[in-house]
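Notes from the 1:1 (GR / supervisor)

We went over the backlog. Supervisor wanted to see one worked example end to end before approving the batch request, so GR pasted a single chain during the call. The sequence is below; no edits were made to it. Supervisor asked that the structure be written out right there so they could see what the output format looks like.
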Amino acid sequence: MERRDIANAFDGAPVYYVPVTDSTMNDARRLSEHGAINGTVVFAGSQNLGRGRFADRSWVSETGTGVLMTVILDRELSDLPAPIGAFPLLAGLALSRVLEQDFSFDVAVKWPNDVLVHGKKVSGILCEATRTSILCGVGVNCNQLGFPGDLRNATSIARELGRPVDPERVIARFLVELRVIVTGGRQYPWRREIERRLAGKDAEVEVTSGLDRTPVKGILRGVCADGSLELEIAGAKKSFPSAEILLRS
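Structure output shown during the call:
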């Protein structure tokens, strides 16, 4: 693991690079256990065990073409803007701001942990908590141009932009935007900012939740203060803290 000279908005916290790893989340967990400071980053050229939100999902990326990273955040900071369960949304918001400001993309946040560009998935986010830290794992498709058939709804920054981008620049910009949000305190309007970008808002969607994964249809109204999805079903609002959402065309 080598330290890279990438500007880190979190007071210059170290940014480490590993060419190949099982998972940057695992690397970050070990760094956290050894006292890594707030904002420390580990990113990789490739991952063998990159995973998604569910156990049967993985994050697939061509070697050296994207951002595969985990940021270590201090969960004991006194004025975090949102509960830990909402942090995938906060990270999604930070990346959305980068994609909008730097590339002028039409960006949407798909609840709870995906970022879409022109309706296609460009990023997936996974956050986990330890006793002292929030581990914010982020995968961003930067320069990959081809995707397997089962990832036909995926895209990359380069594919949408028409030219390659520097993944390390994306990391530095993401850290700037993430710090603005994380240090914004409880007054930071993260729910308003998410709902302005929320994929499917005010449209009919279908969600599956619970042990039986029974599908439920409703109007997507927004997100709750804890990050749960809020649907309107038969005139009444209902929250879903854990679910999978299907957006209708």
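Supervisor's comment: The first strand starts at residue 2 and ends at 3.
Batch request approved.
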